[in-house]
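Q: What structure does this chain adopt?
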Amino acid sequence: MNYYPYDSRNNLYRSRLGAVPAGENLRLRLLLHKDARCYEVFLRMKNDNDSFVSEIKMTPAEWIEDYQFFECEITTTEGLYWYDFRYTSAHGQFFVIKAECGLGVVSQSEGERFQLTVYDKAFTTPDWLKGGLIYQIFPDRFYNSGTPKSNIPTDRFICNDWGRQPEYRQNNGPCSLGNDYYGGDLKGIEQKLTYLNELGVTCIYLNPIFEAHSNHRYNTANYEKIDMLLGENQDLVNLCKAAKKQGIKVILDGVFSHTGDDSIYFNRTGRYGTGGAYQDYSSPYKEWFKFYDYPNGYDAWWGVKTLPETNEDNNSFTDYITGENGILKKYLKLGIGGWRLDVADELPDRFLDKLRIAVKSENPDAFILGEVWEDASNKISYGARRKFLRGSQLDSVMNYPFANAIIDFVKFGGGAALSETVHTVLENYPKCSVDTLMNHLGTHDTARVLTMLGKNDSFIGDRAWQSQQKLSRYEYANGVKRLKVAAVIQYTLPGVPSLFYGDEAGVEGYGDPFCRATYPWGQENTELLQFYKALGKARKDCKAFTNGNFYTVLATDKAIAYTRTNDKGRAFIAVNCGNNTIDIDLPVDFIDCNKVFGKPYANGNLTLGEYEYTIIYK
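A:
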């Protein structure tokens, strides 16, 4: 048998896997061959905030054949740590550094260190989301209840053709990019709750619903009012109450890093009279923004002048959002189940700390989800290491690493790379955050997943080019086959799958605004829709998907197989994206599983053809 000096993902070397709670003991062990002729062995460790490395001497322990363990126990406070090992021997000094797949290798020089995330022992995340399913809705494009709308600003273009392609031209008269509205509303979502329940949805994530003067509503005009085309505050209350009866909670998009310039707070266009930071130097809102040459010189989100940045360090602004009578609590009191934070990595730690206190003091069971595109455990933004998932800020994040890895695997292959991405997240994130990850394949910020999987180009055309693109019959069929495999993986990995409205119905399109087309009521791909309903049922039926452990059984270029297990259920998942048929021996522990989604097995053996899949569960 081959032994490695260290394996950060093996209980033989670590008494606890993954991130660990502060104040609890962690035993680390190194395994060295007798021919190493060791004198002394040390754990080398540093806090991310420190420049120095401390050393802890490791004690000789038991032998395995010709290999001896050296071990030590550590207890740490909350923080991010990096570690490796050093030993002296008759042959000189050596280091054990991090290599691929969590393995340690012997080196004569220092190298990459292992990461250890230590989180607040009291950190928990809401149980109601675990094992569930998120459904993301771009409110204007989901369903129009037909309720008459009033007080609509005259500079909005109301589309009467529900199937019309979203406008992509910035200067096209009254109908321009961001200015075309289709009338989807909160009452419309309420009317479709039974449909969402049939998909297995347990959480609705709504893109911004506050008054704003673009259809995406990320340029908030007034946090205290629902946009007039979506309804009123009471409509949100009614939606939350009706959703609760279907076992569904609603979370809102909180956009706090910037507002719109056309807002009650900034008011550059004068829509809101003579007040606002731009119009009035004495405005109470002036210090909410970052002026450097009043009034036209101010910091704007990514340089977009219509999106002036807020000053989240300003006490008045922070209190307006996080205070006892602030925006966060206002909508929690109306019945929402939590908040998704737009560009969470652009919000300072102080603001996020206060945000969590505000949300959890109002409702400890409310969910706080952050938009972070990279590994959220070690993310650096604006020159500082962030602490999103260590207990004082977010509950979890949008899981872009999984999304990218799944799409790359299904299109191009690389089962080992997908497995490695999953294991890296499991190693770096607290378990409670892993169990509530938002595992999406597409969002309002990305091309439709069907288009990404059906097309093999690199999406380099401009909006005019994209507006002319449509999947060919072959591309569409190929995209659907790939999408099914991708969805099987998405629905069965650790975390919570998230459907972007219409993906289950076969909606296609490139990026903004084409990914934000209307839901095709009455024109759905019914075969794909039935697949998603059945997949949602399988996920709901197997309790292993709530918080079960993950173990990779097989990872080749075109195939992957893994298990999810806990004390209430177990599942074996396998997919094949290659041209060749593969045969997989079912692990003995799963031969008695009597429920199957996808290809069945026979006599303990599973045979999968191209783009075939199975979930065998109990």
